[in-house]
Automatic annotation (TrEMBL), chains A, B:
Keyword vocabulary terms for this entry: DNA damage, DNA recombination, DNA repair, Metal-binding, Zinc, Zinc-finger
Gene Ontology BP annotations: DNA recombination; DNA repair
Protein name: Recombination protein RecR
Keyword Manganese attached: no
Organism the protein comes from: Flavobacterium cyanobacteriorum
């Protein structure tokens, strides 16, 4: 698309580098910003820059933080003996939203995926194994997505820590609350029967 | 959504001000930037800022430009006696892409829409009327979207310039090339019969 302004062209090119945003959407966003007060664009640009430059990763769990230790790891009320292993900080937010977990997290930064060129070395697996080996951890909960890559990653970690004798668990896989049984895939349905729970425990709290 | 970083929260809040981008998408974009080299975010932020601060609007046609006069208005080969009236600079790009128009444009900056609080005063109608009254313009082509607001805007302008005696035309409304007749709405189909063209003119060039 030929544009009458190189400045606009440059902005559209940069915006369309973002995932899921094509040239047309980028142009729409750029034109939107041009119609708004200059301050909006300035605030957006500044927020992006300070986020990228000043954000820290928690030295304990690799969660995103504004200080060296994230709020969760710094909270004395959290149970440090239970670690929930997740792919991404979005998963931390999702689990925190449930208000049902009082342990701490370990953010891997992804999962092992040879197709995407992600090997164990690019994830924070080594620091997790070190943490487990200090002996203060009692349970590791694997909360990765139930995909082949998630299972591979779980198993890769499991092999390295199974000799320590800590409890390892994985989040339950089954029919989502509110879903119709007939639409569930057979693997999920099969597992939900295999891993059935006592009825009194199954009721929504 | 509670986030472990105020910097991230601020960035997500700013990104989600953009039209069509919700909190979840904004978070996904912010986390993407955090995974990329710092330079990408810096370049994005700078491109947005310089676009917003340095872009100009053509003093002739209100198209976006890097100089006071846009490339189209500055081009001596364009026919200054034919003005195509459009809502938006995106429409200029779309018509330029056809390579079939050699006149110049006038960008209104929107269309009259009382529901959205846009009156004639917020559009560049006055400068268009002035331009027509100088006497150098022979034809005005209305190329607004065929909606009620588009028609209202066309008619509002038409009333102010009809006494000058210049030719006024509107882009053809009809069945889109490649569309199936049976799926066309009846108003469009009706017009396409009413405004039929000589067969020899109807063939794709």
């Amino acid at each position: 698309m030929e544009m009458s302004s190189k400045l606009l062209e440059k902005a559209v090119a940069e915006i369309s580098q973002l995932p899921g945003i094509g040239k047309r959407t980028a142009l729409r966003l750029a034109l939107h910003l041009l119609k708004q007060p200059t301050e909006q664009t300035q605030m957006l640009a500044k927020a992006l820059q300070s986020m990228r430059e000043d954000i820290k990763f928690c030295t304990q769990c690799h969660n995103i933080a504004d200080t060296d230790t994230c709020e969760i790891c710094a909270n004395p009320l959290r149970d440090r003996s239970v670690i929930c292993v997740v792919e991404d900080i979005r998963d931390v937010m999702a689990i925190e939203n449930t208000n049902l977990f009082r342990g701490i997290y370990h953010v891997l930064g992804g999962k092992i995926s040879p197709i995407d060129g992600v090997g164990p070395g690019q994830l924070t697996i080594a620091s997790l194994v070190d943490k487990v080996k200090t002996g203060t951890v009692k349970e590791l909960i694997f909360a990765l997505s139930p995909t082949m890559e998630g299972d591979t990653t779980n198993f890769y970690i499991y092999r390295q820590i199974k000799d320590t004798g800590i409890i390892t668990s994985a989040i339950a896989r089954g029919i989502a609350v509110g879903d119709e049984l007939e639409f569930a895939d057979e693997v999920t349905l099969g597992r939900s029967i295999l891993h059935r729970v006592p009825f009194e425990n199954s009721l929504a709290k």
